[in-house]
Design brief:
The protein is of the alpha+beta class. It has a domain of 122 residues: Metal Binding Protein, Guanine Nucleotide Exchange Factor, Chain A (Beta Complex). 19% of the residues lie in helices and 22% in strands. It contains three helices and nine strands, in the order H-H-H-E-E-E-E-E-E-E-E-E. The strands form two sheets. It has a six-stranded antiparallel β-sheet. It has a three-stranded antiparallel β-sheet with strand order 2-1-9, with no helix packed on it. It starts with 7 loop residues before the first helix and ends in a 5-residue tail after the last strand. Bound molecules: zinc ion (ZN). Zinc ion binds next to loops. The site of zinc ion has 8 residues, from loops.
């Protein structure tokens, strides 16, 4: 059986296998977060998966109610709705960097609000059909924890409003520049 009789897809597959073999043989591990152009990076890179019992152990009851059970804290009651220090806001469940104070704005809603996440892969939008509404839920991409909701009435430059529960966040002050 000669090579010409095979479908082209098969030959292409063999060529990719050869490239992969060369990459592996070179001893250089593929760089995570720097995928080839036009290819989605692996989704499972650093996902944090825990059982409900494990989450209950490491979260406060308030954090558990919001992050794992999709609760909502009362407006104007959380720690960060009126917080203005420069720094980063991390997920209170897993520590992933979610938002930067530079994209925080006063929305008047009583919840910390941002017009953009810290990075393109910090948070993940999910369709939410609860309470008879169609909304976009925002979850932490790393641990899947519920953060809040995404609306399209935010300020420039994005026009987006990430309405986030303070209890889902942990603030880290940015060190002053020397
Ligand atoms: Zn998280």
């Amino acid at each position: 059986m000669n090579d010409r009789s095979r479908p082209t897809g098969c030959r292409r597959g063999r060529r990719w296998a050869l490239v992969l073999a060369l990459v592996l043989a070179s001893g250089v591990p593929p760089v995570v977060g720097a995928p080839e152009a036009g290819k989605e990076p692996p989704v499972s890179d650093d996902k944090l998966v825990k059982t409900e019992a494990e989450w209950m152990k490491i979260l406060t009851p308030e954090q558990y109610a919001v992050l794992r059970k999709k609760g909502t804290e009362s407006a104007f009651r959380g720690q960060f709705w009126d917080h203005h220090e420069p720094g980063v806001y991390r997920c209170s469940g897993c520590g992933a960097e979610l938002f930067d104070s530079r994209s925080k704005f006063d929305s008047g809603t009583g919840w910390p609000s941002f017009w953009a996440p810290a990075g393109p892969r910090s948070v993940e939008p999910v369709q939410d059909h609860s309470h008879g509404m169609v909304r976009t839920e925002v979850v932490c991409r790393r641990c899947g924890g519920h953060l809040g909701h995404l609306f399209t009435d935010g300020p420039r430059p994005t026009g987006l409003r990430y309405c986030i529960n303070s209890v889902s966040l942990r603030f880290e002050k940015r060190p002053a520049r020397k």
